[in-house]
Amino acid sequence: MLRRALPRALGAVPCPRRRCHRPCPPRDLAVPNAAWSDRMRRHYGHLLSTATREGWTRLPSFRRAREHRHQVPWLAGDSDSDGAGDTRLFPRAIEGDGDGFEFAMFLNVPKGRLRCLCQPGPFLEGHPGLAHGGAIATLVDTSLGTLALAVAGRVVTANLSIDYLAPVPLRSVLLLEASLQRRQGRKLFLGCDLRDPDGDTLHARATGEGHGDRGTLGTRGHAAHQGHR
Ligand SMILES: CCCCCCCCCC(=O)SCCNC(=O)CCNC(=O)[C@H](O)C(C)(C)COP(=O)(O)OP(=O)(O)OC[C@H]1O[C@@H](n2cnc3c(N)ncnc32)[C@H](O)[C@@H]1OP(=O)(O)O
């Protein structure tokens, strides 16, 4: 009992597979794995190689929201409220490499932009062979949410609107390009396109609205984002 209680009391993360209760360092999931297609690897390599020169930062990505706290300390919610600690960040809930959402994000705060390279896996099926609309919405919400958090601090999604323009085949490669469009008080208005990075297909276009806490939005956001008002 002590073996289980002690790591939790110290804030250690139990092994996600529950095979042991030794602390596990969080694994960065936004890096190539065996399930990434050659196309996914090629685009990732290109984004990574040009990132620093063009002012983009690759964001690490972990299984649980709280594992992002050092990087995103203004995540809403209470990290103690998840009881036994067995939580998953929704787009990272499917554990098999390649089965769910494979994605890597690149952020450019001064420009108010985020890129998300993604490969939807077979467990995200809607119509046979095609990605579920809810899975696409998850990618959109996660991308717009991450951008909003980065530029403005503590923000939640108030509104999301998606035009689904062309079906997304499972295991395809997609590039989501998001940008902050404007700000109005505590509200952030964001938009994104989801495209085939090698072709002309625009799969989806979305807009989202994020709302900040009273008193939060405007301090961090003002400093980071004067150019986007
Ligand atoms: C590294 C890890 C990255 C993880 C990224 C994850 C990103 C995930 C992001 C999410 O999915 S967050 C989860 C989904 N969202 C929520 O759970 C939000 C739940 N809703 C709320 O908390 C509140 O309803 C909300 C903060 C959105 C609004 O509450 P307020 O108390 O600020 O609203 P209020 O009634 O005072 O209205 C303020 C203004 O907002 C407007 N408003 C309220 N709700 C709205 C709405 N839903 N859509 C658009 N506008 C809205 C309202 O009309 C009004 O406009 P005006 O100022 O012009 O009068």
From TrEMBL:
Presence of the UniProt keyword Membrane in the record: yes
Protein's cellular compartments: Cell projection, Ruffle membrane; Cytoplasm; Mitochondrion inner membrane; Mitochondrion intermembrane space
Domain Thioesterase, residue spans: 129-201
Protein name: Acyl-coenzyme A thioesterase THEM4
Membrane topology term: Peripheral membrane protein
GO cellular-component term (any): mitochondrial intermembrane space
GO MF terms held by the record: hydrolase activity
Classification via InterPro entries: HotDog_dom_sf, THEM4/THEM5_acyl-CoA_thioest, Thioestr_dom
Organism in which the protein naturally occurs: Cyanoderma ruficeps
Catalytic activity: hexadecanoyl-CoA + H2O = hexadecanoate + CoA + H(+); (9Z)-octadecenoyl-CoA + H2O = (9Z)-octadecenoate + CoA + H(+); decanoyl-CoA + H2O = decanoate + CoA + H(+); octanoyl-CoA + H2O = octanoate + CoA + H(+)
Top enzyme category: hydrolase
Compositionally biased region (Basic and acidic residues): 201-214
Span list, region Disordered: 201-229
Domain of life: Eukaryota
GO-annotated biological processes: apoptotic process; fatty acid metabolic process
EC number: 3.1.2.2
